[in-house]
Here is the input.
Amino acid sequence: MLVLTTSCASIISESQYPVILSSHPVAAQIVITNKSGREIYRGKTPTTLTLPAGDGYFSAEKYSVELTKDGYAPQTVILDTQLDGWYIGNILFGGLIGFLIVDPATGAMWKLPESKTVTLAEETASVIIRGRDRELRIAFSDDVSIEATAFDLQ
Here is the structure.
């Protein structure tokens, strides 16, 4: 009876995980929403949050992480769950109750990554002036590739 009622992921793993979120550069504004669109955190990087991996019976959670910082392009990344390897242990060790009920209900069948680091790209500035048949583009020289500077003088 003990073998049939064990649930490997619930015993070995967790259903909530601390996740370290950081950015380059530091002190970016961060907004995290869950897969139903509800905001669950607003603050600055770096930060450590404890997030649930499950979102109901046999349902994994997924988080959208939006980062913004003045002078940098905004970026959104997904923080997604994966199947916890200990959940498969239910099959190997005969934990049918854990496999079908306990781990799926508690979210222990899923895991989140330990950390996520996002590198924000610096914003580039450019001005476009359009005339009849011509276009003038003004940009910082650091933001323009050599290929982009080649133009036809005809």
About this structure: The two ends are 86 Å apart (CA to CA). The chain has one domain: 2-119. Residues 97 and 129 are 68 Å apart (CA to CA).
